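Structure tokens please, single chain.
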Amino acid sequence: MDNLKLNVSLLRKRVPNLTIAAKEKGLRPATVSNLCTGKTPLERAEVRTLVALAELAECKVDDLIIRGNNVQMIETGIKALDFLAPITKGGINGFIARPGMGQLVLLAEIFYRLKERNYATVLLMPRLDSLELNEVRESANILCQDTESAYEKMMRLNDKQDVALATDRSLVVSGEIYSLLEKVKLPEGKTITTFLIDPTGEAVDEELPYGPLDTLMIFDAEQVSRKLFPAVNPVSSTSVMIEDAQLDKKHFNLQQKTRKIMRRYRELRFLVNALGFDKLPFADKEIYKRGERLEAYFTQRFFVAEPFTKKKGASVSLSNTLDDVSRILEGYLDNVTPDNLFYIGTLNDGI
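Here you go.
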């Protein structure tokens, strides 16, 4: 059963408000989410859970089980995303953030980079407008006010383009986004990669505000307060590619080591702020140093921010990011101050 997975697309199509519907069926939303993302293998699912999901989707249990294919990542050149929470090509990727934490700037940067790679970038305008959307508008090829116009414009695209589509949580709650994705038929081999945002910030307070996602990018207030951007939480942000161990072995192992160190580093920050670095045991000092440098390394200059920062944006290949992270984890940067690593590209740019 190693290659069997839940038919998530069928569930999304037939049960748009899956989180609410699952609760009403007596299922824990986290249980359903873990099955949908692959965090819980299908063979470990309880029969009653699969039966309940089949009843919700009005289908047979067999219809909910498919032979899974490998998931592809979209390499963006944004270190924190590519390394910590890879974007899934053709998947649904969600942002969890309060207003002003940088989610729209990050979306604009992703659009900018994908447009450079001949993606059609489509912004289905959020129902709550804001000044922060200006950068996203500028990075979008196509602006739409409703799902009908989005459908018509995407169907007129040439057959050589993949699509990056962004919209807000209100269309997830209503189920309109899933209906749109099911309706649009692109040429064979072309995909729609969806990005979901929540300009209101309400998503932060809900358990599964978007339902099951392929990639979840959670923004961190503490990083924002220290002006560490993109403020993507290195511990809680994740991707089905990580949970499903579909990354390259080197990437997966480095990612797991990094997440472990960053989790402990974030705990140690409280002790260092209260008692000072010298009070830490030797082993914790080593973890703290490496966590501090990893945190600095994952900051990055954006192309869309050049008019404001007056500094050129940086793009770093995943292979370079893996090599750099490996050097930090192995202690080669322990004697380099974190200040030298903030907003650099590769390590060679900063040391």
